[in-house]
Amino acid sequence: MNDYLESLFSLKGKVALVTGGSRGIGEMIAEALVRAGARVYIVARKTAPCEATAERLRAFGECIAIGADALTEEGIQSLKSDIGSRENHLDVLVNNAGTAWVEPVDTFSERAWDRVMDLNVKSPFFIAQAFLSLLEAHASKDSPSHIINIGSIAAYTGNTSAFSYGPSKAAIHQLTRVLADELAPRHIHVNAIAPGFFPSELTAPYLADEQQKNAMIEDIPAKRIGTPEDIGALAIAIATNRYMLGSIIPIDGGASLG
What we know:
The protein is α/β, with parallel strands linked by helices. The chain has eleven helices and seven strands. Strands 3-2-1-4-5-6-7 form a seven-stranded parallel β-sheet, sandwiched between helices. Helix 3 links the parallel strand 2 and strand 3. It is globular and about 50 Å long.
């Protein structure tokens, strides 16, 4: 059984890059990929927290921290150059870096709107573009490379007072489909994960309020929030699959059913 599971889900010898990998869902996915055997690069704007996370994950395998700003063209090109100087190919790119902005509708600013859209939609496209040659380098019909975009069930359910967040995640879902069709001939498979309620910086205010936390959990059919193992297992399954393209996979305990 172990040999069978190894043949299906091992990432030994693979190289992965996770943006926003120093915390939250990015850290959860990075840990899963490391534990599955991949050499994982995690990227964050703040170098010190990124290195601290990489140090923790090195207990399970290879993890390298890189400080870069995925919001700027200069940052993306610097990241491309850094990875390119270390690797001749890339097997898995996880576009996780993102943000939200909560503010009343009467005062919600253009600056807030643009920042969310830029980091959640524009940046993943240009990061994917920057790494196409590395993603294509070792890819084949029987061993494709993978881009995993991180969306959200907020694309379906809305998100009160975060007016650009849900639309940005709906956009990344659609971008996933468009890129999947475009890149399939190059053996780069593009899919997206749409998480529900997981512990992260974005959800920390809800978790801190016990009454609000319990009320949210009560609305989730599974009656709990997501764990690192939940989303990590899904990321490994996508990164080792050879036939999945353009899929948007909710992982939300059934929260989007209602």
